[in-house]
Amino acid sequence: MRPLSAHNLLRVWEVGENQHPLDRALTLLAAACPELTWDDLAALSIGQRDGRLLRLREQTSGPQLNGLAECPRCSERLQFDVAVATLQVTADADGGEEAWELATEDLALQFRVPNSRDLAAVVDCRDPAAAQNLLVQRCVLQASRDGVPVDSSALPVEAITKLAQRMAECDPQAEVLLDLCCPACDHAWQTLFDIVDFFWAELAAQAKRLLREVHTLARAYGWREADVLAMSARRRQFYLEMVT
Ligand SMILES: [Zn+2]
Q1: Spatial CA neighbour of 172 closest among 47, 81, 35
Q2: Which residues contact 101 (CB under 8 A, 6 or more apart)?
Q3: 23, 47 Cβ separation under 8 angstroms
Q4: Tell me, what's the pLDDT at 93?
Q5: Residues within 5 Å of ion ligand 1, judged at the Cβ atom
Q6: pLDDT in tens, 30-65
Q7: Three-state SS for 85?
Q8: CA–CA distance from 47 to each of 196, 215, 217 (Å)?
Q9: CA-to-CA distance for 240 and 221, rounded, in angstroms?
Q10: pTM score
Q11: How far does residue 192's CA lie from ligand 1's centre (Å)?
């Protein structure tokens, strides 16, 4: 994995701006991991994908994340700082489509955890139950009751609930919770941290800032966009200070 250069960052922003977040995540990783195909990346579990996105964010912009949240009790807007390392729940797992097992009183299931393709398949389901059933059918590899194979589309609700819990345990990086506390009213709560949304918002802001810098320097010196982008951020900053 390589950090996003200024040039790559703009390319990713251009391509991903009109994409669904599921595809944006893969566009980001494709730019950083040219040795992997789109299919390889889409087959990563959501936790593996998010672990890589966290690493890419760290390599590109440093180990500290600064975010904004709103207190659910008093609506105070608060800023939070968190180290990427504290959001890395699991050591990087590069394993492909690993099979896991779950045994209930009478059922034995073999399953894999959802990847980007699975989520893309259910993205248009309006009914959450239908989405869950479709995910189960895609991710359950084998199901049997007392040794007799059963159809994964006919699993009882309790088994599906247990399966969802087990999937979350097997891929903990897929759901990262942040502990937040409101400085105004002392309310403490947990919020889901979505690295795709976070990274994208930050990248879009960086892309626009870069383009403004290119505009300023191109106008002042007549330099080409590619040359301005190829400079280190430090050097670009120095020239910007000279002309503004
Ligand atoms: Zn509050």
Answers
A1: 47
A2: 108, 109, 110, 111
A3: no
A4: 57
A5: 71, 73-74, 76, 182, 184-185, 187
A6: 999 999 999 999 999 999 999 999 999 999 999 999
A7: helix
A8: 12, 39, 41
A9: 11
A10: 0.91
A11: 17
